[in-house]
Amino acid sequence: MLLLSRKGALEAKLPQILARCEGWESCGIRICTDLQGLRRSEQVEHEKINLVMGNRKASPVTKIGVYSLLLNNGLMLDLNKCCYSPEMARNIISFHGLYKQGFTFLFDNNNGAINVYYNDVFYFKALPCDGVYEVVNVVDNLGNNVLYIDSSNSLDKASLWHCRLGHVNKKRIGQLQKAGVLESFDLKSDDSCESCLLGKMTKSPFTGTCDRGEGLLDLVHTDVCGPFRVATRKANRYYVTFTDDYSRYGYIYLIKHKSETFEKFKEFKQEVENQLGRNIKMLRSDRGGKYLSIEFLDYLKECGIVSQLTPPRTPQLNGVAERRNRTLLDMVRSMMSRASLPISFWGYALETAAHILNLVHTKKVAKTPHEMWTGKVPNLDHIKIWGCEAFVRRETHDKLEPRSERCIFIGYPQRSFGYLFYRPNDNVVFVARRGVFCEREFISQGDSGRQIDLEELQESSGEGTSNTIDQPEEETPVEPIDESVPPRRSTRVRNTPDFYYGYHITTEGDTFISDSTLIDLNEPNNYREAMAGPESAKWKEAMDSEIQSMYDNQVWNLVDNVPGRKTVGYKWIFKKKIDMDGKVHTYKARLVAKGFTQTPGVDYDETFSPVAKIKSIRVLLAIAAFHDYEIWQMDVKTAFLNGKLAEDVYMAQPEGFVDPKYPNRVCKLEKSIYGLKQASRRWNLCFDEKVREFGFSRSEDESCVYVRASGSIVSFLVLYVDDILLIGNDIPTLQEVKSWLGKCFAMKDLGEAAYILGIRIFKRQE
């Protein structure tokens, strides 16, 4: 409250407070008790302004100026019109004054604290104490060296923008300052950024030059990078880049297979030619098969585009595209090494890095790629540190619920305004217009401790795949090189229904594909490759286990070959089973029949076999989540071996396991094995017979969903090939079903379901 004294002097009535540290009170006036940090001050006439305490004691103001308060996160807070009163017990910061300066405030409902932000940057926290708020993170004994304060702030801004811009070279930040895109601040700092040291490495440059494009789209560079060991959330394992040589502006597309390159080029061509009103004249690429297909080459000829292919084993001549790959992956490694996100988020980091590279200068072009491409100077006000936490406003009708939620910033949507956020609680990515970003806290918490080395993400490239070369420019070894690529587009947002409150059910992408199908693990293609490779002992053990299963289930008998009867071929299939983190835990060998060699009407007739629809599984999971049912998972070992054949089928003895006593005999199959035309049908009929014996009835609308009800006890059984979901509300009943299945088939108990057909299931213990 402000009062006017009888003498006409300005007085401020303040509460009685203790002398501990800086305080924050809403009286509308700022007070400092020492001259350290007070700048541009003016002398006040004696007793012109008095501050009146709660005990009616007056304290005169002798000076008014700008007080610089250094916070322990490196930021400096300038308090304008601050009153110097040496008789006051402590410093006072005005709530209203900060609000007028543009500061924003976020209240913590847990401890009553107030978090103070400016331009989405966290400044300090104030805790309630004795009727006022205390600022707890202020540097003590600041001293009189104002230059030191300014230098500390500049160094902090340099690090802040270095992180915001995806750890690009400081020279590029300097170029943005010269162009007026960024404010001026000191760039002299320690270049040993830990994230850059973890993510970047260089070799000697390749000496050689190539002709440059003289205008937009005169020359476009392209390359495909991948495959990556861990797929993105949308099941992508590769990405393809298209870069304009003249402006260094480029596009990036995440793809599932290299064969999609042609379609992405057509999409890229149509967009850029429509936007610029110019035509692509030349396309430079390596000699990968994706660029040498007849369809691709014919399309280039039809459009009048010259296909310029680099000589074999000379990736340096496609250096623009190759360096772009390396720059992007360097940035992704650096960004992800600090963020606490799953590796599958590398796609979002890649798109963000590509977006940033379009906004910063390159060594070959005087202006930024964005300005060369659009004619407009880029605006960096929207750039935030990738992976930092952010508070995003949430829509709720409950007046007692929090108005915001903690999320993680993961990128910029291409087709809309705002930001991409990840909500860890329900594994959802969504777009929001704005948020409060905790960038300072993110920097101060340091590296996440993960060694995001892209050997962890990227496999060794095969034939036709880009081998990213180390061809740096003449810059600091830990910094990225000069290239730029834009993001592809925003991802589709999926919202989880509110009634999934008991179980959190999330999908990895639009398609339901097992992680094991998305990862190339160098699996052998045949028996000879398995025995010649370094993992031959493990593959031999897996084959022994498979053959033993055949013997235990009495799958075949050795008989003399029937004259005139054709034998069915066979093949060894080798697979590595991985967990959700992509680590190999089991080596699996499967002996399968070559069903395409069977003769219809002779060794097979009907082949149809039902399988549970994914929609049915999701409906049952929703029911289980709503009613808090148990969800158990089981796996049938060698399921197809349980089906008895009705036809006479003969197969050659498998390689590596030919009986030395009867090498000329063949296997007469008594039971179905994987690969036979009728194998799935025979197994389904066998399973249906067994579960009906136990009292289950088949759903009329879904052939692979069974239900059993007795009073209030209900049990569901879902079959998806050889995976079984057991859902119910009574644990003893479910255990009885499990025991019955164990007697009928060789089962593997997987416990509570956690992952089924691309759906992850999390249960809250509430």
From TrEMBL:
<dbReference type="Pfam" id="PF07727">
    <property type="entry name" value="RVT_2"/>
</dbReference>
<dbReference type="InterPro" id="IPR013103">
    <property type="entry name" value="RVT_2"/>
</dbReference>
<dbReference type="GO" id="GO:0046872">
    <property type="term" value="F:metal ion binding"/>
</dbReference>
<dbReference type="InterPro" id="IPR001584">
    <property type="entry name" value="Integrase_cat-core"/>
</dbReference>
<dbReference type="InterPro" id="IPR043502">
    <property type="entry name" value="DNA/RNA_pol_sf"/>
</dbReference>
<dbReference type="GO" id="GO:0016787">
    <property type="term" value="F:hydrolase activity"/>
</dbReference>
<feature type="compositionally biased region" description="Polar residues">
    <location>
        <begin position="459"/>
        <end position="470"/>
    </location>
</feature>
<dbReference type="InterPro" id="IPR057670">
    <property type="entry name" value="SH3_retrovirus"/>
</dbReference>
<dbReference type="GO" id="GO:0015074">
    <property type="term" value="P:DNA integration"/>
</dbReference>
<keyword id="KW-0479">Metal-binding</keyword>
<keyword id="KW-0378">Hydrolase</keyword>
<dbReference type="GO" id="GO:0003676">
    <property type="term" value="F:nucleic acid binding"/>
</dbReference>
<feature type="domain" description="Integrase catalytic">
    <location>
        <begin position="201"/>
        <end position="377"/>
    </location>
</feature>
<feature type="region of interest" description="Disordered">
    <location>
        <begin position="456"/>
        <end position="493"/>
    </location>
</feature>
<dbReference type="InterPro" id="IPR025724">
    <property type="entry name" value="GAG-pre-integrase_dom"/>
</dbReference>
<dbReference type="InterPro" id="IPR012337">
    <property type="entry name" value="RNaseH-like_sf"/>
</dbReference>
<dbReference type="InterPro" id="IPR036397">
    <property type="entry name" value="RNaseH_sf"/>
</dbReference>
<protein>
    <recommendedName>
        <fullName>Integrase catalytic domain-containing protein</fullName>
    </recommendedName>
</protein>
<dbReference type="Pfam" id="PF13976">
    <property type="entry name" value="gag_pre-integrs"/>
</dbReference>
<dbReference type="InterPro" id="IPR039537">
    <property type="entry name" value="Retrotran_Ty1/copia-like"/>
</dbReference>
<dbReference type="Pfam" id="PF25597">
    <property type="entry name" value="SH3_retrovirus"/>
</dbReference>
<feature type="compositionally biased region" description="Acidic residues">
    <location>
        <begin position="471"/>
        <end position="482"/>
    </location>
</feature>
<dbReference type="Pfam" id="PF00665">
    <property type="entry name" value="rve"/>
</dbReference>
